[in-house]
Design a protein that fits this description.
Shape: globular
Helix content: under 10%
Structural class: mainly beta
CATH architecture: 6 Propeller
Number of helices: 2
Order of helices and strands: HEEEEEHEEEEEEEEEEEEEEEEEE
Bound molecules: calcium ion
CATH superfamily: TolB, C-terminal domain
Oligomer: single chain
Distance between the termini: 46 Å
CATH class: Mainly Beta
Number of strands: 23
Low-confidence stretches: 1-19
Mean pLDDT: 94
Largest sheet: 4 strands, antiparallel
CATH topology: Neuraminidase
């Protein structure tokens, strides 16, 4: 008797709809060519870089505008071109933006440079363009520009710099800007309290060293600097960055050479070199970094890191515990296509830059 009565209830439970719908993506802008980075203007428009050397605005739901005039000469070769863009924290007052890019040098060389400029009220041109930092030395290379910009609460600027692939050994020495994170004032001058200003032979802009190729750099809500970087085959990393520290490349790595074979001594740890907070083997090829401040997606996602994967085309979510160990990790939106940038909009929503698709999409809450 009781079994007979329970049966319909069990059937009803099995057929019940899933309580929580999976988040979905919606297109915000399309028709871009190899977009690389995204910023949000106060009027609701987006400011987007294209790697080939165009900076454009776009209204959500609209088409990209004509290229903004006034960019400096850009070496759009290989992985290089017009890369990151950031608004000054006081953009509404000073209309200042920062952008980094592959700056051409003599004899086919290039290097990552950071420039500032004012964006005209009509959004059509840049004025007062000034290069405030140039990576030294420039190299003949199409690879590993790094190139993410982050502004700290005190107004200092951080910039990630790749080791240009050919210069990997130089990531361990302080007489160059290869494989470094640097810190400068907004006018390009060197802050007096940078960690190596009094070290003989060291370049004074250096904040940390031993990096490979970083395309993710943020200051979180607590004022901490986070960076992720591409390892070689295997061994991508998320690092918590402190001044003066050595993050190990190419002496220590969880990766190996492309096609196999150890790098250097094939070791993953060494005294005096920092361990990553998170490592990825195999590599996801990380690009773009957010630590989500908003509660728009619920408590689980709030304070999580979101990282685009170029290789697998998904959005990686990582949440750390109180001791900065990975507590939650998942792969969202698999096979969406090369994800080049991830940002949190002023609306508290996640925006993704899809490189091959030429789109900016938004994660619906
Ligand atoms: Ca490392």
């Amino acid at each position: 008797m009781s079994k007979h009565l329970l049966l319909p209830l069990a059937v009803a439970l099995a057929a019940a709809p899933v309580a929580q719908a999976a988040p979905e993506l919606e297109t915000v802008v399309e028709g871009l060519k190899t977009p690389w980075a995204l910023a949000f203007l106060p009027d609701g428009q987006l400011l987007i870089t294209e790697r080939d050397g165009a900076l454009r605005t776009a209204k959500p739901g609209g088409k990209p505008g004509a290229p903004i005039q006034g960019l400096p000469a850009i070496d759009a070769v290989g992985q290089g071109g017009l890369l990151d863009v950031q608004l000054d924290s006081e953009f509404a007052r000073n209309r200042t933006i920062y952008f980094c890019y592959a700056e051409p040098g003599a004899d086919k060389t290039n290097g990552t440079a950071l420039a500032r400029a004012r964006l005209s009220e009509d959004l059509k041109r840049l004025t007062d363009v000034k290069v405030i930092f140039s990576q030294s030395p420039k190299m003949e290379s199409r690879l590993h520009f790094g190139c993410r910009i982050a502004e700290a609460p005190d107004g200092k600027l951080f910039l990630s710099l790749g080791e240009r692939y050919k210069g990997m050994q130089s990531a361990q020495t302080l007489d160059n800007h290869l494989g470094k994170i640097v810190r400068v004032n907004k006018d390009g001058s060197v802050p007096a309290d940078n960690p190596f200003v009094k070290t003989p032979g060291a370049l004074p802009e250096i904040w940390s060293y031993g990096h490979r190729n970083s395309q993710g750099l943020i200051v979180d809500a607590q004022g901490r600097l986070w960076e992720h970087e591409h390892g070689p085959q295997g061994g991508d990393e998320l690092n918590l960055i402190s001044p003066k520290l050595n993050y190990g490349w190419p002496v220590i790595t969880y990766g190996e050479n492309y096609g196999g074979g150890k790098i250097g001594d094939g070791i993953a740890a060494k005294a005096g070199m920092e361990q990553p907070v998170v490592k990825w083997v195999p590599s996801i090829a990380p690009a773009g970094l957010v630590r989500l401040k908003s509660a728009k997606y619920g408590a689980a996602w709030q304070n999580s890191f979101f990282i685009g994967s170029l290789k697998f085309g998904h959005l990686e979510r990582v949440k750390l515990d109180a001791d900065n160990r990975p507590a939650e990790q998942e792969k969202l939106f698999p096979d969406t296509g090369r994800m080049r940038d991830v940002r949190e909009g002023p609306d508290g929503l996640l925006y993704l830059v899809l490189e091959s698709a030429g789109k900016v999409v938004r994660v619906k809450p």
